[in-house]
Amino acid sequence: MAKKDAKVRQVKESTLAAQTAQSPTTATTTTTDNSTSTTQLSFFNELVNSLQISYTSYLKTVKNDQRLKLIDCFLVFLVILGVFQFIFCVLMGNFPFNAFLGGFISTVGQFVLTVSLRLQSLDENATLFKGISPERAFGDYIFASLILHFVVLHFIN
Amino acid sequence: MFGSIRSIALLLVVLVLQVVALTSPLANSRTLVIYDSKVSENFKETHVQLLNLLSSSTSGLQVKAINTDEETKETVELFRNGYRLYQNVMIFPTRAKELSAEISSEDLLKFSNDGGDFFIISNQDGTQTDVALFLNELGIYPSPKGYRLIDYHEESKASIESITSPQFLNNAIVPESTVVSKLPYSEGASALLSNSEYLIPVLKASKTSFSHNVDEGLVHSSSTWHVGSQGFLIVGFQGLNNARVTWIGSESIFSDDSFDAELVASLINWTFQITGLIKTEFVNHYKLVDGEVLENDTNYKIKDTSRYEIGISQWDGAKWIPFEGVEDIQLEFVMLDPYYRLNLASSGVRGSAAVYSVDFQIPDQHGMFTYKVDYKRPGYSFIEEDIVVPIRHLANDEYPRSWEIPNAWVYLSSALTVMIAWFFFVVFFIYSGKDAVTSEKKSK
């Protein structure tokens, strides 16, 4: 079972690597090395290994794109802030529930909008968003975010 | 000339009498005494003290005989043209089939429902049928004809003559100060009581007493009316309309031979609305803001502080005086159920009323609430005061703003952080290139 899963994951990773690699990389060679030694590795090692692979491939993807890096930093910040608020609410009780919803939803909503912006600014997705220029996408993003902030401020009271 | 002087003198006498004797606050306290001419032929001669007491404490005393010969017959009626003729009626034991052609047991009940008071006296010859039916309606069951009240531990006679040091059960009717060493109770009857909450037992039969039907011979369960302290000798009744009825099983204490002035006065004063009378003078409720009373604002909202006060006065026989020293008056704040049941504390005297008040916070629940004081104590007039008030919920601008709640600071600052971070993100996004490496190369 584990073997089968590992194989499936490897296939996925290899295709991902093939898709994202624009410059010549050593990704393909590492995956083949991995495939020979999967039988000996425990599940945990497999997980760490695959995460490492994903991370390196991700770093390669964003290496030359400052905007993607910026977007991802912002997303990580939003996730941390959202998790913090949720934990605070669980520990301290949900008394000003509207305030919690406002704060939490502002991070979630901003996350969703930013992910949308990221999807639209990827070169691979250019065919999906035909007729929407990057400037138009960014303008939509600002407009939607402003509405979100307006609603959140009023909801928090 | 002489006539006017005499009338002024009469008026003065009446005024003096009114000042001396305890009287009822009721405008109409006309009294009727009904006796059986066959049972006590010289009633007016043998009951002088009683009649003096009645004529000084009530007005318009009439004494009428029933069961008389045709030529001396009087009309005895309680109502005329639908109006009640008397406030107080005292009925002595009779052997007649009926009180009068005009009075049935329904009339007695109607009289009591209309606010009239009865003092009913029975003896061992039973109670007249209409009167007995009326008493049964109240939950008083006097022993029928033929039963003798016996207590061999007290007297070795066929029926008891007196009761040694009786213990009276109600302070409001017979005050504790009334000490009777030997209560005359000859030819007495006993009564069984229902568990009606409007009955007020005044005197119980002794533990060693029983009433036995002498015609039955042997003493067993079917030939006894009461056994031990399940029997009662004096019973009061007060209906929801505050009309009073007193029943006593013997007429001994009323005749001049064995007249007990103190006890008779106590019983008659209570029955004929002279003692044990309390009334509400005023009921107020206020909204309190920071301990200050807002007189004209009773537009309550949830969690407001409210002050309730009730003024109660007591009739002392001549005027209304404050009803003081009571600690068991309670206020209920009710919407279907009582949300609060609070003790009212004494807070001074205002005019002729003692004021009892309490401050409390209205619960966190909106709707139609009732301030309810339901003060029903045996021996006193019943007080029931209801005031319905609407309690509104908070308006949408009356909730605390988020910055007034410390917990909300976390969420508020998070939301603001997201906004500020978003602003910087937008600025950086605009000024960042698509390809950092190429821009570096270009700059070189």
Automatic annotation (TrEMBL), chain A:
Its quaternary organisation is: Component of the oligosaccharyltransferase (OST) complex.
**Could you tell me where the Low complexity compositional bias lies?**
14-35
- One Pfam family name is DAD
The UniProt family comment states: Belongs to the DAD/OST2 family.
The protein depicted here goes by the name: Dolichyl-diphosphooligosaccharide--protein glycosyltransferase subunit OST2
Instruction: Tell me what topology the record assigns in the membrane.
Output: Multi-pass membrane protein
Keyword ATP-binding in record: no
Q: Keywords for this entry?
A: Endoplasmic reticulum, Membrane, Transmembrane, Transmembrane helix
Ranges where the record places region Disordered: 1-35
Q: Where in the cell is it found?
A: Endoplasmic reticulum membrane
| Entry GO terms, CC | oligosaccharyltransferase complex
Protein's UniProt keywords contain Membrane: yes
GO biological process terms on file? protein N-linked glycosylation
- Summarize the protein's role: Subunit of the oligosaccharyl transferase (OST) complex that catalyzes the initial transfer of a defined glycan (Glc(3)Man(9)GlcNAc(2) in eukaryotes) from the lipid carrier dolichol-pyrophosphate to an asparagine residue within an Asn-X-Ser/Thr consensus motif in nascent polypeptide chains, the first step in protein N-glycosylation. N-glycosylation occurs cotranslationally and the complex associates with the Sec61 complex at the channel-forming translocon complex that mediates protein translocation across the endoplasmic reticulum (ER). All subunits are required for a maximal enzyme activity.
Q: Composition bias, kind Basic and acidic residues: at what positions?
A: 1-12
Q: Which residues cross the membrane?
A: 70-93, 138-156
Pathway the protein contributes to = Protein modification; protein glycosylation
From TrEMBL, chain B:
Q: Where are the transmembrane segments?
A: 408-431
Tell me how this protein sits in the membrane: Single-pass type I membrane protein
- Give the InterPro entries listed for this entry: DDOST_48_kDa_subunit, OST48_MD, OST48_N
Looking at the record, the residues that make up the OST48 middle domain are 295-432
Q: Could you confirm whether the keyword Methyltransferase appears in this record?
A: no
Query: What pathway is this protein said to act in by its record?
Result: Protein modification; protein glycosylation
Its annotated compartments are: Endoplasmic reticulum membrane; Membrane
Q: Name one GO cellular component term.
A: oligosaccharyltransferase complex
Residue ranges of every copy of the OST48 N-terminal domain listed in the record:
30-268
Which residues belong to the signal peptide in this entry? 1-21
Q: Which GO terms describe its biological process?
A: protein N-linked glycosylation via asparagine
Write out the entry's keywords from A to Z: Endoplasmic reticulum, Membrane, Signal, Transmembrane, Transmembrane helix
Report the function annotation for this chain.
Subunit of the oligosaccharyl transferase (OST) complex that catalyzes the initial transfer of a defined glycan (Glc(3)Man(9)GlcNAc(2) in eukaryotes) from the lipid carrier dolichol-pyrophosphate to an asparagine residue within an Asn-X-Ser/Thr consensus motif in nascent polypeptide chains, the first step in protein N-glycosylation. N-glycosylation occurs cotranslationally and the complex associates with the Sec61 complex at the channel-forming translocon complex that mediates protein translocation across the endoplasmic reticulum (ER).
Subunit and partners = Component of the oligosaccharyltransferase (OST) complex.
The record's similarity note reads: Belongs to the DDOST 48 kDa subunit family.
Q: List the protein's name.
A: Dolichyl-diphosphooligosaccharide--protein glycosyltransferase subunit WBP1
Organism of this sequence: [Candida] arabinofermentans NRRL YB-2248
